[in-house]
Amino acid sequence: MSGGEQKPERYYVGVDVGTGSVRAALVDQSGVLLAFADQPIKKWEPQFNHHEQSSEDIWAACCVVTKKVVQGIDLNQIRGLGFDATCSLVVLDKQFRPLPVNHEEDSHRNVIMWLDHRAVSQVNRINETKHSVLQYVGGVMSVEMQAPKLLWLKENLRETCWDKAGHFFDLPDFLSWKATGVTARSLCSLVCKWTYSAERGWDDSFWKMIGLEDFVADNYSKIGNQVLPPGASLGNGLTPEAARDLGLLPGIAVAASLIDAHAGGLGVIGADVKGHGLVCEGQPVTSRLAVICGTSSCHMGISKDPIFVPGVWGPYFSAMVPGFWLNEGGQSVTGKLIDHMVEGHAAFPELQVKATARCQSVYAYLNSHLDLIKKAQPVGFLTVDLHVWPDFHGNRSPLADLTLKGMVTGLKLSQDLDDLAILYLATVQAIALGTRFIIEAMEAAGHSISTLFLCGGLSKNPLFVQMHADITGMPVVLSQEVESVLVGAAILGACASGDFASVQVCWGESRGPRQ
Ligand SMILES: Nc1ncnc2c1ncn2[C@@H]1O[C@H](COP(=O)(O)OP(=O)(O)O)[C@@H](O)[C@H]1O
Ligand SMILES: O=C(CO)[C@H](O)[C@H](O)COP(=O)(O)O
C-alpha cells in the first residue's frame, strides 16, 4: 500500500485462516508488516476423506492472534480489519449456532473443510447435468466446491443438520459475519465456490436441477442474497461483542473477505518490479501468475476478457482483482504432500533428531543434505531414477480428475536419510512439473504468462522456489514481505476503511520483489 499523503500512523489488521493455522498481522499504510502472530487450529479426520473443523475454534484462534499483533498499539490508530480464509463450508442453525456435519452429531465439528472429498457421488451427478454454470468452473465441478457438499448434507444428515440449518457460509464470509453481524457474502467466495455469477446472479435452474431447489424457494437466504465486492465495508463495522473478543475498538471498518489464495494473489500480483530487470517489467499484469503455495497450491492468472481453460477453475469475473477475469489452477495437496512423504519415511525420526541438533527445520536440513550428496552435478539430477506422480488427493488442474492417485517409481530397499532426501526432492519436482502442466494448459487457452509470483508457506523453501524456476523456465519473484497473504487481507481492511479507494490503489512500491 502506498499511501501518498496519508498520515503514517494508520494501521490495518489482516487475519489469514489457513488449513493448519490462523495468522494475523498489523500492517501500516505503506504495506509494511509490523507485527505477526500465529496459532494452530484443530482438524478432525473422522473417516478417510472426511475433514472437519470447528468455527468456534477458528474464531477463538483469530482472537488470540489479533490481540497479540495489536499489543502496545493505540487502538484508535487501527482503521480497518480484513479476513481471508480457506474455502471451507461452515454450517449454523437459524440462531447461528454450530450444527454437526458428521454422523457422530458432534456440533463442535460444524465445518466441512475444503479438501474434504466425501461428496464424490454428489459431484458426479452434478457434472452429469452438464449445466451451463459448469463452464465457469473449468467445465467440471470439483468435489471441493460447496454445491456437492451441500447436497451430501441434504442426502446424509437430513434431520440432524440439513433441516435445522439456517446459514451456510464460506469460511471467509463466516468470519466477516462473526465480526460485524452482517450476513452479506463476498463476491469472491460465491463466484469461485458456489456458482454465483457477478453478472447474472444465482441460476435457479442449476439448484433445481441438482436437487437443492430449497435455496431457490427461500430466495437464497441461507447461502447469501446480498453480495459485496471484496474490500467493501460491512454494516457499522466491528460489533461491540466482536471488538471485545478481538481486543479492538467497536466500529472499526471490516471488509468483505477473500478466499486465502485470492488474498495471496492480491498481495503479490500487483507488485512494483521496476529496476529488477524482470521480463514482466513493462508487460501487463496479465503476464503474471500468482502461485499461492501452502497445504495446496493455487495458480491465479488474470485476463481482461474471459478465457475458458479446460480443467482450470473460472473464468471468474472480479473475484480477485476488480474488473479482471480470474482463472484459478490448483494442486489439492502440495505442502501436505511434502509433509506426508517426509513424515512417513522410515528415516524421519533420524531427520528430526539431526535437524533439531542443528536448530534447523527438517526442510532446511534436507536442502543442505541434498547439497552434500549432489557431488558435481546440479541437485536436480539426483532424481534421474526416482519419480513421483503427485496426485495423492486427485488432480485438481488441469486434468480435473479426483479419482487419480499418487505414484512413486524407482524405489529401493534402502531407507536411509539419502533416500528420504531424494524422495523429498522428487516430490518437490513433481509439484513443480504439475505447475508447468497447469501453465501449459492456461497458455494453450490464451493466457500469456512470463513470470511467477510465489507466496505461502512453501515459498519459504528455497528448493521449492528454485525447482519452480528450473522446471517452468520462468523467473520466480518473491515479495519483500514474506507474509504476502496477510498483506492481501490487510489491503481489504485498508480498502474498507476508506483510506484507499480500491484494492488496486493499495498496490505499491513497498511490496516489490525481494533483493
Ligand atoms: N520455513 C519453511 N520451510 C519449508 N517449508 C515450509 C516452511 N514453512 C512452511 N512450509 C511448508 O508450507 C506448508 C504450509 O504452508 P502454509 O501457507 O502455512 O499453509 P496453510 O495456509 O495451508 O495453513 C507446510 O505443509 C510446509 O510443507
Ligand atoms: O481452494 C482453494 C482456494 O480457492 C485453496 O486450495 C484452499 O482455500 C486451501 O488453501 P491453503 O492451501 O492455503 O490452506
From TrEMBL:
Domain Carbohydrate kinase FGGY N-terminal: residue ranges: 11-267
Gene Ontology MF terms: D-ribulokinase activity
Record key words, sorted: Kinase, Transferase
EC assignment: 2.7.1.47
Reactions accelerated catalytically: D-ribulose + ATP = D-ribulose 5-phosphate + ADP + H(+)
Any Gene Ontology biological process: pentose metabolic process
Keyword Transmembrane applies: no
Enzyme class: transferase
Domain Carbohydrate kinase FGGY C-terminal: start-end pairs: 289-496
Pathway: Carbohydrate metabolism; pentose and glucuronate interconversion
Cellular component terms per the entry's GO annotation: cytoplasm
Keyword Membrane attached: no
InterPro entries: ATPase_NBD (IPR043129), Carb_kinase_FGGY (IPR000577), FGGY_C (IPR018485), FGGY_N (IPR018484), FGGY_RbtK-like (IPR006003)
Record PANTHER family: FGGY CARBOHYDRATE KINASE DOMAIN-CONTAINING PROTEIN, RIBULOKINASE
Function: Postulated to function in a metabolite repair mechanism by preventing toxic accumulation of free D-ribulose formed by non-specific phosphatase activities. Alternatively, may play a role in regulating D-ribulose 5-phosphate recycling in the pentose phosphate pathway. Can phosphorylate ribitol with low efficiency.
Similarity remark: Belongs to the FGGY kinase family.
NCBIfam families documented for this protein: 5C_CHO_kinase (TIGR01315)
Protein name per its UniProtKB record: FGGY carbohydrate kinase domain-containing protein
Native source organism of the sequence: Cercocebus atys
